[in-house]
Design goal:
- The chain has about 400 residues and is an alpha+beta fold.
- It folds into 3 domains: about 90 residues, Butyryl-Coa Dehydrogenase, subunit A, domain 1; about 110 residues, Butyryl-CoA Dehydrogenase, subunit A, domain 2 (Beta Barrel); about 150 residues, Butyryl-CoA Dehydrogenase, subunit A, domain 3 (Up-down Bundle), CATH 1.20.140.
- It has 12 helices and 8 strands.
- The protein has a 4-stranded mixed beta sheet. A 4-stranded antiparallel beta sheet has the order 2-3-7-6, with no helix packed on it.
- A hairpin with a 2-residue loop joins strand 2 and strand 3.
- Helix 9 packs across helix 10.
- The longest helix has 30 residues.
- Bound molecules: flavin-adenine dinucleotide (FAD).
Length: about 400
């Protein structure tokens, strides 16, 4: 894979122009809109509708899931085309995987890998066309680090399953159309072999939710109370849910990488170069310059690791611990940046600035750093996964000791 984005082939150069022109035209109506972060405490109907409409238009062109098969709503394009879409959307402040608030980028690979032909025909096109918002329901009140101890029960009754349980810290400030739910279908069964993965409509009777106002975003508690689910919504077969979830958790935990650039760094450098009311500039302060230099090193290392993982994932050359290693580093960089912003900007780092989208806003990032300590696991789960990948896990060690 060639990351020299200046060296497009003639075909890719033409595609870049097509995408760039199209985005310029179709994002015009949203120019005045302040884009919210991946998780946000701000609900703005105009912003939400703009992003959903944009996703639908991208989806109809096959540009939301560019490398997936056309018959399921994808673009049937190459990774080089996907690179263009990733980079051009990122430049305009949006991630390709989440143009609006949905986790479809995780669910599509799972259904593609484990769904029956009928399930692929029914479930994939609406997700790939951007018609539905999907939430991921894994975490439960007793703890999200160890999701294999799932207590939400799904009991088979004739052609249906009846689901009972509670999930927590899931979804977004906007509403869901579909839910992916990890359940326990064999409470007495062996660990990892007693779970099942469902993809269900969010409006089935018995489903309700309440917002949770967390520091860096609205999440939800979802209650599943005798929810009757036809068996056709079980993906991957009964008691095979751990395999289904594991297939895409690799992506959530950094394995898919990223081609994104940091708007935060750009904004903070520009802010430090501005002349302040007292005639001074922050950038002339040696302590501020030290903070900026450290931030640049971290952000650039993060960017290169993101590109490395993107390359491994798309070239299908698995790297054992690249995902959790990158994820761990990202969490630490965000935490360090939250502190650096306060050191450089003082109280100004605690006030949102309307001129920046949330992802590049100082106040949002002050909250985002600590907030992302728990999200798709924690620093501890990252460490545990890295250890396992290196063959240092409890099970491997236990077997080694048993052998003597
Ligand atoms: C912004 C955000 C978005 C999220 N989005 C989703 C979502 O869309 N869907 C979803 O299902 N969940 C989501 N979550 C939940 C998230 O996955 C969990 O917060 C995370 O997995 C940790 O679980 P927990 O918060 O219950 O902490 P716990 O599991 O209760 O852990 C508490 C503490 O104990 C530590 N710990 C736990 N086990 C061990 C161990 N074996 N060894 C050492 N230390 C350990 C943890 O690292 C942590 O510090 C989200 C969370 C956040 C903050």
């Amino acid at each position: 894979m060639d990351f020299n984005l200046q060296a497009d082939t003639p075909e890719i150069a033409a595609f870049r122009k097509e995408v760039s022109d199209w985005l310029d035209a179709n994002m015009k109506e949203g120019e005045h809109i302040r884009l919210t972060g991946i998780w946000s405490t701000v609900h703005d109907d105009a912003e939400y509708l703009f992003r959903r409409r944009l996703a639908e238009k991208l989806g109809r062109k096959g540009w939301l899931f560019p490398t997936y098969a056309k018959e399921h709503g994808g673009g049937g394009l190459t990774t080089a085309h996907r690179n263009v879409l990733e980079v051009e959307l990122d430049r305009r402040g949006l991630p390709l995987g989440n143009v609006f608030y949905t986790r479809a980028e995780l669910v599509v690979p799972a259904v593609t890998m484990f769904g029956t032909d009928e399930q692929k025909r029914e479930f994939l096109p609406p997700m790939m066309r951007g018609d539905v918002a999907v939430w991921q329901l894994l975490t439960e009140p007793h703890g999200g680090s160890d999701i294999a101890t799932c207590r939400t029960r799904a009991i088979r009754e004739g052609d249906d399953y009846v689901i009972n349980g509670q999930k927590i810290m899931v979804g977004h400030h906007t509403k869901a159309d579909w839910l992916m739910v990890l359940t326990n279908t064999a409470p007495e069964g062996k660990r990892h072999e007693n779970l099942s993965w469902f993809y269900i409509p969010a409006d089935l009777p018995g489903i309700s939710y309440t917002h949770l106002n967390l520091m860096m975003g609205v999440k939800n508690a979802v209650y599943l109370d005798n929810v009757r689910v036809p068996a056709k919504y079980l993906v991957g077969g009964e008691n095979n849910g751990w395999k289904v979830a594991s297939a895409y958790l690799v992506l959530e935990q950094g394995g898919g990488g990223s081609l994104g650039e940091s708007t935060l760094l750009r904004n903070v450098v520009a802010r430090c170069e501005e002349v302040q009311p007292d005639g001074t500039r922050l950038i002339d302060d040696p302590d501020v310059r030290d903070q900026l230099a450290d931030m640049m090193l971290d952000v650039d290392t993060e960017r290169l690791w993101g590109m490395r993982n993107y390359w491994h994932y798309n070239e299908k050359t698995p790297h054992r611990y690249a995902g959790p290693q990158y994820f761990f580093f990202q969490r630490m960089v965000r935490l360090r940046n939250a502190e650096r912003l306060q050191k450089m900007l003082g109280y100004d780092a605690l006030v949102p600035e309307e001129r920046y989208d949330e992802l590049g806003d100082f106040e949002y990032n002050v909250r985002y750093g600590p907030g992302m300590m728990h999200g798709g696991g924690t620093l501890h789960t990252d460490r545990i996964i890295i250890s396992r990948c290196l063959g240092l896990g409890r099970n491997v060690e236990g077997k080694r000791q048993a052998k003597g």
